[in-house]
Sequence to fold (292 residues):
Amino acid sequence: MKNKARQNFTLLLCVLPALLVYGVFKLYPAISGVYYAMTDWNGLSKTYAFVGLANFAEVLRDGYYWGSMLFTLRYVLAMVVVANVAALALAVAIESRRRAKGFFRTIFYMPNMISMVIGGLMWMFIFTRVLYYMADNWGLAFLDRSWIGNPQYAFIAIIIVAAWGSVGYLMIIYMAALQGVSPQLKEAAYLDGANAWQTFRHVTLPMIGHALTICVFWTLNASFQVFDVIYVLTGGGPGRATQSVALNIYEEAFQGNVRFGYATAKSTVLFVIVLAITAVQLRLMKGREQEL
Fold:
């Protein structure tokens, strides 16, 4: 028992620095944020008043906030589907190759290594210059669209750029899971007369269910926090048509009236919504994994 206690104490000492950093820079701000959400603090003043639940009551009546929430939900749904389908398709295609796997893994993972601010500026040039040039000089008239100024096309542009930046990361997770699928199971399915799709549907997909849960969880959480892509491409415009919740909170905290306490209340509401949706998603997908 003494050796066990000594071993546990040693392990605790090893993780203590990480726990301190996490507590100071993550846990404490999160807990203190709940308190500041019930004040009228502007983020700079040394004095502020306690307003109780008034900020939360105002959030419920804030049409701009809930408009940005609806846009964010559309974005989340699109990203969960587009990013995961594209990443899984790439993982299956690359993993089935006999040669140059490393080359294709590197090529498709590279966008994940670029800051999305830089990537957004690159794509801004493509949408505002390159596509117009291709439409005028190559006869590709369908590319002649207001990709940033039209709300419908701006949403498509945001999804393209966001998926471009995240598919590589998800692809690596799916590829790692695919490598754990037993070749004998696939061979048995082929011998039983299953085609490629049936083998993937009934053999491969159930075996990588854990990776699917992880990727959907990551995409869901990252999508609710989207900020940089939208800020660079559209700034939330035209008007507020592409304003995400994170961008709405940013504007409330650092622009206009600089209502830091009210912005923190918005963040707290977002946290509760994301927590509830994530809990439901994990419960459903874990149950689905057991069924498969």
